[in-house]
Amino acid sequence: MRRFTAAELEAARDRLVPDVVADGLHVLFCGINPGLTTAATGHHFARPGNRFWPVLHLSGFTPRLMKPSEQGELPSYGLGITNVVARATARADELTSEEYTEGGRLLTAKVERLRPRWLAVVGVTAYRAAFDDRRAAIGPQERRIGDTRVWVLPNPSGLNAHWTAATMAEEFGRLREAARH
């Protein structure tokens, strides 16, 4: 992937990145919001150092390591990607509590429409803010959206040093096993 200039990244601020979705997915992964590299490329989890794509493969969701530019293949594996908040920012801490609340409302409507088996929110802080659930932890949640079960996964950002690719893959793998049944 080519490196973007600071001006190119700044020009991507507030852009919207289309979801990768289909009806009846096994798992709809939900990021916090697009970063500037994602907005500049139009590909989810595109920032170098983001571990989403390697962890997706290591956990067995995909048969090979995919590039962000191959995101359109995900529905063929029963997978999709959306975000809690649609607008692109440099950092998630630029989002307001109102944006998270509205994002949770819009995400709920999207899940009710698409009806995936599982909604997997990558980032416990984002899940807590979007769904006003301060006690949520990594793993399956009690909450359901219609028939859709909810799982909170660790944030794959390279900034999340508490989780390695291997430990994240274990948690993603737990979800993969649950989604198979």
Automatic annotation (TrEMBL):
<keyword id="KW-0156">Chromatin regulator</keyword>
<dbReference type="InterPro" id="IPR015637">
    <property type="entry name" value="MUG/TDG"/>
</dbReference>
<protein>
    <submittedName>
        <fullName>G/U mismatch-specific DNA glycosylase</fullName>
        <ecNumber>3.2.2.28</ecNumber>
    </submittedName>
</protein>
<dbReference type="GO" id="GO:0003677">
    <property type="term" value="F:DNA binding"/>
</dbReference>
<dbReference type="InterPro" id="IPR005122">
    <property type="entry name" value="Uracil-DNA_glycosylase-like"/>
</dbReference>
<dbReference type="GO" id="GO:0040029">
    <property type="term" value="P:epigenetic regulation of gene expression"/>
</dbReference>
<keyword id="KW-1017">Isopeptide bond</keyword>
<dbReference type="GO" id="GO:0008263">
    <property type="term" value="F:pyrimidine-specific mismatch base pair DNA N-glycosylase activity"/>
</dbReference>
<dbReference type="GO" id="GO:0006285">
    <property type="term" value="P:base-excision repair, AP site formation"/>
</dbReference>
<dbReference type="Pfam" id="PF03167">
    <property type="entry name" value="UDG"/>
</dbReference>
<keyword id="KW-0832">Ubl conjugation</keyword>
<keyword id="KW-0804">Transcription</keyword>
<keyword id="KW-0378">Hydrolase</keyword>
<keyword id="KW-0234">DNA repair</keyword>
<keyword id="KW-0805">Transcription regulation</keyword>
<dbReference type="GO" id="GO:0004844">
    <property type="term" value="F:uracil DNA N-glycosylase activity"/>
</dbReference>
<dbReference type="InterPro" id="IPR036895">
    <property type="entry name" value="Uracil-DNA_glycosylase-like_sf"/>
</dbReference>
<keyword id="KW-0010">Activator</keyword>
<keyword id="KW-0326">Glycosidase</keyword>
<keyword id="KW-0227">DNA damage</keyword>
<feature type="domain" description="Uracil-DNA glycosylase-like">
    <location>
        <begin position="18"/>
        <end position="179"/>
    </location>
</feature>
